[in-house]
Amino acid sequence: MLGICRGRRKFLAASLTVLFVPAITWIYLFAGSFEDGKPVSLSPLESQPHSPRYAASSQRERESLEVRVREVEEENRALRKQLSLAQGHGHRGNHSKTYSMEEGTGDSESLRAGIVAGNSSECGQQPAVEKCETIHVAIVCAGYNASRDVVTLVKSVLFHRRNPLHFHLIADAIAKQILATLFQTWMVPAVRIDFYDADELKSEVSWIPNKHYSGIYGLMKLVLTKTLPSNLERVIVLDTDITFATDIAELWAVFHKFKGQQVLGLVENQSDWYLGNLWKNHRPWPALGRGYNTGVILLLLDKLRKMKWEQMWRLTAERELMSMLSTSLADQDIFNAVIKQNPFLVYQLPCFWNVQLSDHTRSEQCYRDVSDLKVIHWNSPKKLRVKNKHVEFFRNLYLTFLEYDGNLLRRELFGCPSETDINSENLQKQLSELDEDDLCYEFRRERFTVHRTHLYFLHYEYEPASDNTDVTLVAQLSMDRLQMLEAICKHWEGPISLALYLSDAEAQQFLRYAQGSEVLMSRHNVGYHIVYKEGQFYPVNLLRNVAMKHISTPYMFLSDIDFLPMYGLYEYLRKSVIQLDLANTKKALIVPAFETLRYRLSFPKSKAELLSMLDMGTLFTFRYHVWTKGHAPTNFAKWRTATTPYRVEWEADFEPYVVVRKDCPEYDRRFVGFGWNKVAHIMELDAQEYEFTVLPNAYMIHMPHAPSFDITKFRSNKQYRICLKTLKEEFQQDMSRHYGFAALKYLTAENNS
């Protein structure tokens, strides 16, 4: 609407100038005085009307004005010609002129001068997008890194949006797993997500050689007319490296400006790539002038289908590939080749809808003020390290959304009905059944809290061993235990599954830490799963369940982040799995736990060395001085001399670290923070008749650290301890109902302990 209003104002002003300037000028020259019949004086010397000086001066004035009138008439003729040209043009020609902030003209300087006035006055501001109209957005996404980029893009869109959104994600299997879980746990109102299998589309574009770093997925925007639902009429297509600085509804409104056969909305390319002058013998694909950038596309799908878009782009690509051999900029080269042959297809968007921050672009000509920015496109392989005069501002804007708390974007759109979400309804029902006056309400509520979860935050690549003996180490941590990661990776060479409890900002700190670590970057068999912070408790058992759920091996070692496994434990456990026939029996293999109070420890290389350190007082059995019951049933006295595995019985408060099959029961989510989180799990294993077997040549050592916030609350807050006791009793009652008579021993053991 803003562009239309500005165009009308220009046309009106020009017309008024053409009509009235000559009339006013001639009236000014020849109007006389009606009182005494004298002409109106044009000179300050009217007190001497009959003097020779007055006559000469008057003659000079008249001649000067006649010259000026002729100049005005020439200007008017030029203005009429410009107006007739503007009205006669149905589409833009070669857009190789200097960038302008508006469509339909190359007169960039005059338009830039009117930017501020145009932004502040929008001649009535008729809304082009209805309040609850759904805006459709398509994004091609593949792999781990692109999935992270999509989250930042979506955050920037959600932050500004006031309309329901429907995201169409063309994703590979990896991205689908990550993003499906993320959006399911994000639970943003008035947002719908549909996935389309990118791997099924590969055959549509695999015949096109592509040198661009986006690979085969960089060509998939060409087949959207075929991929997206046939009843979808229009869609905004975005690259993953886009950041929005305004409401996406403003861009959606531009569809109303399309005329005739215009079906593609694009911003002109802001580099010299398609001009072919970047280096000697540079030969780009054909393009109209500077060409167009496809980081932001408005597609009129219904019209494109009627025009046989599939046939159009395929024929063009086949013809050009005969001489070009491959694409350099993926789908963008083919889009531009089609537009070169059919310029009537394109509607040129103002360049602030795609401010391109690759090196050597003219992006600075797209804006004069922050308020002019609409969409920022990090279309350089260097991304945030790109060279630009205002890159610090753009980088800070990007980092704002990168680290923004995504939970705050769960905003309702008032007045717009949302689709029924069964998960959300069930959650609300469960929460409504809780008593808010209950002193343990917050503990109970945490059990039902849905935490936003981003699986595989970093690249993960691992194929389990073919002999079905592989074991994954499972653990959870928060930001204050990050320093343990490198040490664990050095001690355990097998796969690891970690759940990290972080805020959005901490997730980015972790990313920078990991990317700066040679040890962590050299390991592709570590799955990092981010569970975003929400609520006042550390959801320890939810984190364990997330890490357990996303392992690819048949067995898992349930550990804690503060423990370092002995060197070689991974291979030892794989042998033990075979020896003890874990595949066909319900066993939980216990790895005995020890601890040191020293921050610097010469880690024992063997059981004999460990026993020596126990005797010298350098090491201790785990928690022997504060929580003996937790590991006493392991029978450390027997372990000292044992050479074969031995069975032990469950006892109250037993909480060993065990190796189990991946199908073992989950941890109970009612236990949060400190206390009884592992105890309850071991109790459930015993109730399901797992056999506890101690491994004679395995061990792990707990490293010292500052007390956690949750253990501090447990020690200092009486109500915390009361609520934990209440939850324990309720858990035992649930066990009795579920396992019947066999569970009575847990009540008896608790009463006797």
What would you say about this model in short?
The protein has 753 residues and is an alpha/beta fold. The protein folds into 2 domains: 135-409, Spore Coat Polysaccharide Biosynthesis Protein SpsA, Chain A; 453-748, Alpha-Beta Complex (Spore Coat Polysaccharide Biosynthesis Protein SpsA, Chain A). Helix content is 40%, strand content 14%.
Give me some keywords for this one:
40% helix, Spore Coat Polysaccharide Biosynthesis Protein SpsA, Chain A, 2 domains, 26 helices, alpha/beta, 9-stranded mixed β-sheet, elongated, 753 residues, 7-stranded mixed β-sheet
Describe the structure.
By secondary structure, the protein is of the alpha/beta class. It has two domains: 135-409, Spore Coat Polysaccharide Biosynthesis Protein SpsA, Chain A; 453-748, Spore Coat Polysaccharide Biosynthesis Protein SpsA, Chain A (Alpha-Beta Complex). Helices cover 40% and strands 14% of the residues. It contains 26 helices and 23 strands. Helix 1 (2-30) packs antiparallel against helix 2 and helix 11 (309-324) packs across helix 12. It is elongated and about 110 Å long. This is LARG1 glucuronyltransferase. Keywords: Glycoprotein, Glycosyltransferase, Golgi apparatus, Membrane, Multifunctional enzyme, Signal-anchor, Transferase, Transmembrane, Transmembrane helix. Residues 42-62, 82-106 are annotated as: Disordered. GO terms for molecular function: glucuronosyltransferase activity; xylosyltransferase activity.
